[in-house]
Amino acid sequence: MNTPRAPEEESEKAAERRKAELPIWGPVGAAMAGAVGYFLHGVASGDPLANAIVLWTRFTPAKKAPKKAFLVRWLLWIQEPNRKERKRELTGKATAAEEFDFTVKVDVSGLQPGTRYAYRFECGQAKSPEGEFRLPLPATEPMATLSYAVFSCANRGFGNFRAYAAAVERSRELSAPLDFWLHLGDYIYEYGDTRYPAPSETVVPGLKPSEELVHLQQYRQRHAHYRLDPELQRLSASAPMISIWDDHEVANDDFKDGAENHHSETQGAFEARKLAALRAYHEWLPTRVEFDLTNMSAAPWLRWRRFDFGSLAMLLMLETRLLARTSQAATEQSVRAEIAAVLNGAWALSPSAWPGRIEKKMRKVQSAVEAKRLDPRKRMLGDTQLAWIAAQAKAEGRPGRWLLVGQPQVVQELMSPNFQDLPRGTSPHWADIVRNLTKRGALYRNYTTGDEGEADFVFSELRNAFLVDLAAGRFRIQLNFDSWTGYVAERRLFLQSLRGPTPAIVYGGDSHNAWAGILRADNKTVAVEFDGMSVTSPGLESRRPFLPPGLEAAAWQAANPDLAWADTSWRGFMLVQLGLDNHRLEYMAVDASTPSRGTSEGTSCLAGFDVGRDLQLSGPKSCRTASWSAAAFGGIEPSMPSWRLLSWPWPWVPLALLASLTALVGFLLGRRSSSGSSSSRLFGSRPGGYKRPSEEAEADGLQASVVLFSVFSISVPPCSRPFTEPLSLPLRPLKETRRWASSRWAEAAPRSAGSAGQQERQESARRLLEDIVGVVSSAGIEAGAVRGLQALRATLLTAVEAAQSDELREALQALQGLSRGEPVEDAPLARLLRRLFQRLGSTYVKLGQFIAPAASAGRRCRCRKTLALRSSPTLFPAAYVREFQCLGSGCERLEAMLEERAGTPIVIRVVTQQTGGDGLEHSELA
Ligand SMILES: [Fe+2]
């Protein structure tokens, strides 16, 4: 076990750092020279009552300070905006003693309700920064508005504490200074610097102490390390804090008698660790301590608390961890292992192909999990606290008030999403993502970082974990047992206790993501819940980085009808403006990867919500001021509301562009190209020109259309990008397209008839492209215009016809898959293309023969004209060849068209004959 360093050692370095870095300390720095110590950790106030407040600071003794205790003076002024002279209201003395890690707490009473105060500490020449607070009014007096922010989960290593400072900025901009701020837990994390975050994930290095926290001095040192953060200090100085712990203030997933992250054999008794952690918590946070810190074993050290804000609201802060909570019904790891055991042997299968035995076993796992979750012996609040909550809500709740409840966990019964059963409009995207994850070699994109790479690198780990997620959602197996979802019986009692005349708003944290939804008891709405994203700790985006945030949110909403909105991708906080008739909450997002440097750049409002006194939740809405919208986000776009993202009509964009391009090319193409062109050779036309110029123009127009179609198909991004970048598709850089196209070509090479065949195909393609350029340059206008319009009409008619069946949907799915570079089912697209060709006319039948030169073998046709066609190798995939071999219906249509043009009955028979080793095939049209 590592020995923690003395606080003095850390303080000396911190002092140097503070002098250089912290702007709030700059003016005082000079005055500190020669002082016996410093106020390095700022000031804070907390637990406000109508006439009392807890003031906090920490005095850091200078090196070699001989004393074990220092006398610290505190001073307090009334802070009125229009008051030029500040009159000292109160002053007093307190002790900064080594016994309490030199922290100072003063519970100042006898103050004037509703008054704004400023305060400061002094010790010798050293002066602390100033803090301020406004006291609430007593419950009997009217109060019109309240402004506050809600935070949770601040892991130092994962990022900067920008959320803290952003709350100050935002409230100032709204001219609504914070009345208080809530911290719903995980204010610190207990892990060492090699775990959560791992070194490779660490954004802010230098965690102190570097080892995991077990003993009092270690917890103190971690608190001190966090408190050096200037953004936390800024928020602490601006308004009172009201806090309750979650698990990481002690150890991960803790409960009354233990924790997931506690190992008695090496870390000693859990009780000792718990009391050490709680003592450090109370020493370093501005909580009201009405018990003996030196005798922590004599509980209660902190109970549930109530705060009144005039007649407007009362706030209940609940304790859900260490007073009454029983151990979790199960652990996510254990249930995931059970699911994995069922899937073992089926990892290579797509979920849609899971055999029946898997479903049977999954149902068993689900039943067992439900039995554990429903166990009434699993408690979280305990009877005493439950009774207290019910009493507050019923007896002391008054009409016209709001009941605010702060507690650490998510109360909503969030069921794992069933990604395979998403609402209409999302499933095509989902199908693509599943394909990406269930087939090797597919392109992978991390939606958090934007990085792309081959899925093989992360394939097994990602795919197997994701298949477990899939199974959990599909078979409704709950994975979260540490939140309220693991304490079902107690949850029901808790929600019943909220019933009363006062509309209730519940705040939660812990999940690191944002959730807004309705809470019901016995099918009646009893509260609206808002759970905030973390200050820095990573959310679901780190677990499933391959899923677009909009899809993730949509999946959760689909699985949980009472969930109104979710965001799984941002860090930040919740900002509330409470009025008599309206509760306005805004989800504020921050870019925690960089420090704020005193600006609001990189901060944005994701969504706003209103709740009326009837508990009607409306939103997401736009935010109150435009300057905090996406435009002020410093180039970082916030998550879009899920449905707007997912309902983007992506497939229609390329389709419309394709139709437009076809029309344009047809318009540009002229009567005929020069005789003997490569296109003529390719299509087997006679040297010296054609007898029917318009047909030749059609053939050239056709080539252009097909080649453009092909170029367009391969030029869309070969990854799952269309969720976020639909309009960038046609603008994709050419070099990327070329690289992708060449890789596709290389993939196809092994299937070719050999290098000679490949060269033939390349040569054909080259000649086609040359023709397009030549034809376009020599084209006339009239025939091209007519043909272009005909082509557009045919395209639209085919699309409409296909839309009436499933053909269009299938083809679009295939097109999307193709655009991502996935192996896709070619048949739907080939079928649609064949139908289009049939409608486009006779020239296209000739192209059909180019696509499927063996097409007409065995058909009953009499031919007078012989066409020499390349039979093998072909440029086109097998499905296209097969489809165009079935131009039987096209034969009838061709007959009809030719009859129409010739004015006489015509019977077509195509006869093909393989001529042998030269690869040439001779067909006859009669
Ligand atoms: Fe957390």
Automatic annotation (TrEMBL):
Pfam families recorded: PhoD, PhoD_N
Segments for region (Disordered): 672-696
InterPro entries documented for this protein: Metallo-depent_PP-like, PhoD-like_MPP, PhoD-like_sf, PhoD_N, Phospholipid_Metab_Enz
Domain PhoD-like phosphatase metallophosphatase, residue spans: 149-582
Domain annotation Phospholipase D N-terminal: ranges: 41-134
Compositional bias of kind Low complexity: 672-685
Protein name: Pld protein
Upper classification of the organism: Eukaryota, Sar, Alveolata, Dinophyceae, Suessiales
Gene this chain is encoded by: pld
